[in-house]
Each structure stands twice: as structure tokens, then as C-alpha cells.
Amino acid sequence: MAKPVSETAVPLIRPEAAVARPKRAIPWEFWLLLPAVIYIFLLIGFPLILSIYYSLSHISVGRRDFSFAGLANFRAILHDGIFLQALRNTVLITIAVLVIVLILATILATILAARFRGRAVVRYLLLLPWAAPVVMSTIAWKWIFDSQYSVINWVLRQLHIIGPYEFPQWLGVPKLAIISIIMVQVWRILPFATVITLAGVNAVPKELLEAALVDGAGFFTRLFQITLPMIRPIIGVAVLFTALFTFTDMAVVWILTRGGPYNSSHVLASWAFQVGIVAGDLAQGAAIALFMLPVLAAVAVWVLRLASREVTE
């Protein structure tokens, strides 16, 4: 006997049930990245937001005035002669260090890429300035620049470049103080730039250089027409980090000269520390520090885009 139609009919499926899909769980990559994101935010993001907030207020150490000041702090520092001097010093020191470091790093990388006895020892000695703490090495340089017991003065006196009773004040004359800061920055950053450039030089195919050598290409032809064009993206990375390290460094200037004599050797980082922490004007100190942000961001974007274009081509 056949069943009634009502008992054999196929049950209706609701449209919501037909389109419903199982909920997608949070990907495991998210949980792996979360600690790093939180760490970076607490270390960089939160101080940056706090600096922006301070720079737009009237806050200082002795007065908790969080009232909105607009761009008054930025307008005030643009009319400050010491700030403009610090800005000129920062740009001058960064460009000088960049040029000297790139030239010396290319020469050292070319030498260290060749095989010779004692190459490992030379590479080890080259890395020592980078491994040493910046504060301790800068204190040692301060002794080297001492007006009476300076090793540099002794060498210059032995070479008869200066007289027996001349004592150049390396840290007491504005121009000599800037030269001293440049020397220490070059000594500090050169190992890092050399290692990066050396990695690029070693990555150049040996067959290409040997073919050029067979064709009669000399050393400088191979260097300027093969090696340097091929490692241009890596040189871009060295340029970026050298500029960032020099532009944002405060320790070398503060230990050597503390911005002296007469505030003539300040850079933006040391002047921001002087105004914001030593003098207690947190608002203007934050404004000076934030002045570096757009410059560094523009340099970083330009270098990274240049390097990316070179790799793509």
C-alpha cells in the first residue's frame, strides 16, 4: 500500500540554511604576529602618539597644561636660531658621513672580497667598532680629542703639521667640533656599511667578471660598469641605514660636546633632548623631535622605491 503524499515529500530547506557556511576560525598566523605587533606598538607607536599629543599642547615638567596649542610650538622653533643651526648641522653631518662612508665601504669591500692571507683577522678587526657600545667608544674618542694629551695632536706635531706649542681644541672650536663628530660617526657606521656592501660584491657572478677580464676590461672598468651597477640596490640599503643612524643619533654629540661650544654643534636629536628633558619644555622638545619624522619618512620611501625599481629591472 502506497504511503500518503504528505509522508513521502522532501522536507523544505530554508534559504538561510542553504547559504550558511561554517565560521572561519582566526588564522594561526594572526596569533603568531600579535605579540610582535603589540611590542612594536608599545615601543614605537605609543611614544609617537604621545609625542604628537605633547607637541600640540602647552605641557611642561612644571605645569601639566594639556590645553590645545595648535601649531604654536612648531612656529616657535622655526624662529629659534639654535634650532636652525641644529638643522643645518644635522644635514651637513649626515651628508658628509654618507659620502665618506660609501666611498670607504666600497674600497674596503673590494679589498676584502679578494683572497689574501689574514683576511679573516682583518674582517674581525673591522667589525670591532660596530660591536663596541657607542657610549664607551665615544668616551674613548673624547680622550683622543683631549686638548693636551690628544694622540691626534701628537701625530700632527711629529709630522710637523702643527708647531710644538700648538694645541688644537678639537671640541672647543665650532668647526673642529663638527669635524670631530663626523670622524666618530664615520668610525662607528663604516663596519656596518662595509659588511652590507661586501655581501653585494660577493653576490656578483664570478663568470661575468672573468669574461670581462678576458675581454681586456681593467679593474676600474669592471668596478664601475659591472660591480657597482649590479649592487646598486644593496648600496641603497646601506645609504638608508647610514642616513637613519646619523640623522637620529644623539649619543655621540651629547658625550663629545653636549652641543657646545655655545650651542654651535647641536643636532636635532641633541637639541630636542636639551629642550624637552634638560630644560623641561616637553611640548617644544616633542615638536623638535617630530620635525625629523617627515624628513626620515621621505628618505626611506625614496630609497626603498629606488631599490625596488632596480630589483624589478
Q: Which terms would index this structure?
A:
313 residues, mainly alpha, globular
Summarize the structure.
The chain is an all-alpha fold and 313 residues long.
Task: Describe what this molecule looks like in 3D.
- With 313 residues, the chain is mainly α.
- The protein has helices at 5-8, 15-19, 28-55, 72-78, 81-113, 119-131, 134-144, 151-158, 174-203, 206-214, 219-230, 232-248, 251-256, 268-278, 282-290, 292-312.
- The longest helix is centred in the first third of the chain and has 33 residues, at 81-113.
- The radius of gyration is 29 Å and the shape is globular.
- The termini are far apart.
- The model has no long low-confidence stretch (mean pLDDT 85).
Q: Which helices and strands appear, and what pairs or packs with what?
A:
Blueprint: H1 5-8, H2 15-19, H3 28-55, H4 72-78, H5 81-113, H6 119-131, H7 134-144, H8 151-158, H9 174-203, H10 206-214, H11 219-230, H12 232-248, H13 251-256, H14 268-278, H15 282-290, H16 292-312
Helix pairs in contact: 3-15, 4-15, 5-9, 5-12, 6-9, 9-12, 12-16, 14-15
Indicate the proportion of strand residues. Answer: under 5%
Characterize the main sheet.
none
Order of helices and strands: HHHHHHHHHHHHHHHH
Structural class by secondary-structure content = mainly alpha
Spatial shape:
globular
Which ranges are low-confidence, i.e. pLDDT below 50, for 5 or more consecutive residues?
none
- The helicity comes to over 70%
Q: Compute the gyration radius: what is it?
A: 29 Å
How many helical stretches?
16
Strand runs, count: 0
Terminal Cα span? 80 Å
The residue-averaged pLDDT reads: 85
